[in-house]
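Researcher: Good morning. I'm working through a list of sequences from a screen, and I'd like to move beyond sequence-only analysis. For each chain I'm collecting a predicted structure so we can compare shapes side by side. This is the next one on the list. No need for commentary yet; just the structure.
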Amino acid sequence: MGIQTQIYRLLAGNVMRDKPVVLSPGTPCQVLVRAMAEQGASCAFVVDGSGSVLGILTERDVTQRITFRADPDTPVDRMMTSPVRTIGEGEYLYRAIAMMRRQGVRHMPVVDRAGHIAGVLDLHDAVAVATERLMRQIDRLTVEGTIEGLRAVKTAQVQLAQELFDESVAAPEIQQLLTDINRDIYRRVVRGTLAAMEADGWGPPPVDFDLLVMGSGGRGENFLLPDQDNGLILADYPDSEHTAIDGFFIEFSERMTRDMDAVGFPFCKGGVMATNPLWRKTLSQWIDQTASWGRKRNFMVARLVGIFFDFCAAYGSTEMTLELRQHVTVTMGRSPGFLRELYKDEADHGTALGWFSRLVVERSDSDKRGQINLKIHGHLPLVEMTRLLALREGISDTRTLARIEELTAKGVLSRDQRDYLVSSFSHLTKLRLRQQIQDYMAGQPVSNHVRPDDLTRYERELLVESFRSIEDLRNKVRAEFTADLF
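Model: Good morning. Structure tokens for this chain:
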């Protein structure tokens, strides 16, 4: 991971100081002062019996409000600052930095999933891992969570991608960062949606849920403007409660997808969204559904679920998502017939490589004449063939490069094949991302097409070599899934 993107991948829990000074309400101030001195702490927290944070006292409070001013036996809860803004240990560090800078605080309690204090984040520690330029980028990426604010985050995301691209940061690394920011936007929209629904009288969610993102978002391979591919896993509930519970999540899904569209994530034209009941199920229903898919030899089913297999959680505890992933990994590994059907659906997705290794460009589409669609004729066949092998081999990781590495470790791919495929993925990602950034900055529709004449000679040669490597992979998969050699 490059230093330019590392700040955006760190979590608050990675940088927090553990074992903060924690006191109960009613503790005398003299005990507070002694505990802070003994531990060399610059702050202390007052928590209730369950470990939830009630207030904070800092060195400044001790020197300006307690020492020589308050009775030593004064309860700490009478001197503390309350309420206190907290941040989850799984939240991104860059968001914590922005929050602390805007609020003008030096210390922020870090809490676990149950809301109990797990550590303390010191602004000095957090900023120490960032440069001044990174701080400006952080400010742009953490605008408050209104629709207009999140739309501005999408614009800042593109600007960040361009800056990192200009600094020669590896394209797949930028791509993963774009995905991380997009998942963070999902989380912020979900929280805003839930808060608005509660204010409108819907109350909190009736059952726990995980929000799934699929396709490129699930693989960590987003480009600039991905559309919405999402779904919901709901905790199991009695059938008698279906109308009320599903009614809540229908309303939630409609609001969330509408706001995501407003932010800059277009509605999925294929309807792969939580508004569609096909993509909104309980955990048990998802398990039954995927088991049913594994037993079928249905061309349409294969086409329908190809995008699903790359799912990951963008919101929720993720426990249900991990359980479903484990089930899918085992089920698909035992379903060679279904995987053959999936291969048949994807077999025609070839590269733009013609006879004598010549690049094949668009000729029928007047708007795209002389160009190559790198998504359809590059990434798509590479992703699909790698996914098929990963499903067969019981590999649970959804990232294409990680799948290639695990397939190599299992002996399915040779080290030479791995090197060629990694190079192919990286080159395709670089060309496609560069083109999208150029399109966006020029105010043009973001495209997956590149014009070979605009590439350097070396880039064209490497593109040809990339397509050859992908064709070799397609031939390998065809032979292993159909026994056809030609």
